[in-house]
């Protein structure tokens, strides 16, 4: 066995962001770049010798090459076994599922999620811990600090592993097990949802659905579960073939990037239900006929209807949402008499709450919903949850959401993104906003009076860790909010995110377009943060 010790020098930019290390493919292709980061992971873990890891990715460009490199570094570092997805494919939730099912030390996920792929696109790498969830901040900090000192990595000199053939092979002393990418995950889904009922519903001939896999990782999972297992008509899953460049698309399931699906659901004679997922299969967008369900509302609807679904019929221990997510779920939690936790943006913050059984369902405005079945958000799980509810309630998506608003009131909600802002200018905007916070309280803007303004800080109720500077909130006396933060997932310049929310209890006023309902708050956001002047943009680049 030929283990080589390669001398290297640290890169200064390997700090993981909201969800792992994301860079342009060209950055990862620099000599030693990926190797340094992977060795930093192994060096900062307590003990990898003799352990099992899970490895897979969303199939984007550089996935296969990166897998071969990581396998050889793992073998050189004494890992005993790696379970790797067939053809290198494992969705993020499936990786989480496999880590938990086989009690492995952890896993490595290769994805830049919703960022575009291809030689000119992005790539990413993330470490997940033994609970199946993204490494918490103390682990990512340790990896980062190791990456700043690293001077060597270990790698086995060996031929590549055949990722196209299921089964075991040896890489030095390490066993590589190429596993079916879908089977474990599909089994888990079957244990949570009423597959028989959903199957009857989907084969009744009266219900039609369209799921857009956006040429990303969800395709094989959706085809196997929805079409082959549950009997949805062939072709219900569109763009189902994972492609290295996602067919040139941007696999971000929102109204802008998933336009093909949006055109179908808002076109002539649309199907009853539509959904899209992202690059690595953890996000979801839910649509009805001519109807968009905001991710915040989707979380609230799932929480309110959870008892209709076998896996959740005994009730929820609590719910959790990221701070910028609308407060619709809080209202459901209050009615159910359970706690609603508010965490910073980033799925990693839900891990402790799920492990401690303080929350059963979690969700984020960024098209992420999930539960304690894994420790990642899960796109196809959300689709199955909706289908289970629809099969039981026999109402349309729109009827279900409108009834929900009647019961709980409507939280009008929108997110405005300003992408590609020069980093210095974006930071200056946030700094000035931060400086102005003390003077904002009590200020009147038209009909709105500022009640509070702060920089969100989270104290984890399980381990007491504190995460500061998680977004600037401006709250008004009527419960409306504007939140400002910089994205932690982009790879070029900065993205300013502005989250807007108001609450309308009166059912007679539930029919406005959210941009109309939030028009005053949109103006106030610009007044408070001088967005146009700092970004030089008259309009957001993306509105969801
Ligand atoms: C990641 C995180 C999410 C977060 C989202 C957006 O999602 O896992 O928790 O909400 O990024 O983060 P930001 O606003 O910092 O860009 P994904 O699907 O990209 O892994």
- Major sheet, described briefly? 7 strands, mixed
Unreliable stretches (pLDDT < 50, length at least 5) are none
Please, how many helices? 18
Radius of gyration: 23 Å
* CATH C-level label of the largest domain: Alpha Beta
Q: Which structural category fits the helices and strands? A: alpha/beta
CATH homology superfamily of the largest domain:
Alpha-D-Glucose-1,6-Bisphosphate, subunit A, domain 3
CATH fold group of the largest domain: Alpha-D-Glucose-1,6-Bisphosphate, Chain A, domain 3
Strand content: 25-35%
Give the strand tally: 27
Structure, described:
The chain has 544 residues and is an alpha/beta fold. The chain folds into three domains: 3-181, Alpha-D-Glucose-1,6-Bisphosphate, subunit A, domain 3 (Alpha-D-Glucose-1,6-Bisphosphate, Chain A, domain 3, 3-Layer(aba) Sandwich), CATH 3.40.120; 185-408, Alpha-D-Glucose-1,6-Bisphosphate, subunit A, domain 3 (Alpha-D-Glucose-1,6-Bisphosphate, Chain A, domain 3), CATH 3.40.120; 410-543, TATA-Binding Protein, CATH 3.30.310. The protein has 18 helices and 27 strands. The strands form six sheets. The chain has a seven-stranded mixed β-sheet with strand order 2-6-5-3-4-9-8, with helices on both faces. Strands 20-21-24-25-26-19-27 form a seven-stranded antiparallel β-sheet. Helix 2 (33-44) packs across helix 5 (137-147). The model has no long low-confidence stretch (mean pLDDT 96). It binds 1,6-di-O-phosphono-alpha-D-glucopyranose. 1,6-di-O-phosphono-alpha-D-glucopyranose (G16) is lined by residues 18-19, 113-114, 278, 282-283, 345-347, 364, 366, 368, 487-489, 497.
